[in-house]
Amino acid sequence: MDLMIKEKIKQVKKGDQSAFEDVVTFYQHKIYQHCYRMLGNAHEAEDIAQEAFIRAYTNIDSYDINRKFSTWLYRIATNLTIDRIRKRKPDYYLDAEVKGTDGLNMYSQLESDTILPEAEVENLELKSYIHHEISELPPKYRSIIILRYLEEFSLQEISDILDIPLGTVKTRIHRGREALRKKLRHV
Amino acid sequence: MNCDKEAIMLMHKYFDGDLTKSEEASLREHLEGCEACQKHFHELKRTITWVQSAEKVSAPEGFTSKVMDNLPREKRRISYIR
User: Fold this and answer.
1) Are A149 and A177 in contact (CB under 8 A)?
2) Residue A117 above 80 pLDDT?
3) CB B66 to CB A57 under 8 A?
4) Residue B34, CB half-sphere, CA atoms under 13 Å: how many?
5) Residues of A in Cβ contact (< 8 Å) with B51
6) Which of A131-140, A157-166, B48-57 has maximum average pLDDT?
7) How close, in Å, is residue A14 to chain B by CA atoms?
8) How far apart are the C-alpha atoms of A139 and B23, rounded to whole Å?
9) A44 by DSSP, 3-state: which?
10) Is A185 helix (H, G, I), strand (E, B) or coil?
11) A153 lies in a domain?
12) What is the domain range of residue A58?
């Protein structure tokens, strides 16, 4: 798959725009999911994921074909999400709270249609609670927790994606795990 | 072994796959005798399992074509003029 992507990128570099479509198709769900987890809501996630691909396309000349494309793409996406988080206006958080009830609505709809076993309902609630707690982590810990445990990158790959030393990645993943442990220990 | 400093630090090294054999042995020994650290270790393990169990989400329909529609126009090849 890496080879296929490499070939496509070579074509894009030569000016073949249509080759980029396969690259987007291949990475769309991964990048969207990453943005969704970083930002905590679907609307911003789509916005930023779109922007990430457009930036990748317009900056394709600066991409070194000998390096891993996914690392480069995740770096663009992560930087954009962190910029977006920094630029959020205080009133955004009110919206986020309202959006946070989406899960609840979905849950009540589900309940009226079909009867879910108790365990599954609890699981749904737990999942949305965990998602919420991850999205409350400071962005520098959040990005690493997401990349490590949800996208399964190695610590070295995370160091490449975020362009920070491996030692810093380790310190941050340690603090991120402790922060989450404290939030989730009483569940 | 000091719980707050040493044992917890070793736990994190364990989760990152960085423990040496002797560190692993001393962590195990400590955990056997220290209930507080056992609890801490299990909480961390559970946290990681929970995080990993988060649901997968997919990009919305039409995501790719939307990206393609918003790309800057391809540089047109200069057409041959007679």
Assistant:
1) no
2) no
3) no
4) 19
5) 130, 134, 145, 149-150, 180
6) A157-166
7) 11
8) 31
9) helix
10) coil
11) no
12) 1-99
Residue whose pair of structure tokens reads 């663009």 in the numeric block: A76
Q: What span, in angstroms and rounded, lies between the C-alpha atoms of A55 and A50?
A: 9
CATH of the domain at A67: 1.10.1740.10
Tokens of residue A85, six digits: 């988080």
Task: Count the domains in chain A.
Answer: 1
Q: Could you tell me the residue ranges of all domains in chain B? A: 3-52
Q: Which residues of A touch B67 (CB under 8 A)?
A: 24, 28, 50, 53-54
ipTM given for this complex: 0.84
Q: Which residues of B touch A36 (CB under 8 A)?
A: 57
Q: Which residues contact A8 (CB under 8 A, 6 or more apart)?
A: A19, A20, A22, A23
In a domain, A155, yes or no: no
Within a domain: A187? no
pLDDT at B30 over 80: yes
| Length of chain A in terms of residues written | 187
Q: Chain A closest CA to B47's CA: distance in Å?
A: 6
Cβ separation B12–A177 shorter than 8 A: yes
**Would you say residue A165 lies in a domain?**
no
Q: How far apart are CA A101 and CA A128, in angstroms?
A: 10
DSSP letter, residue B70: T
Average pLDDT over residues A51-65: 96
At B60 the three-state DSSP class reads coil
Using an 8 Å CB-CB cutoff, list chain B residues near A173: 12, 16
Q: What ranges make up the beta strands (E) of chain A?
A: none
Give the closest of A21, A53, A180 to B47, CB-based: A180
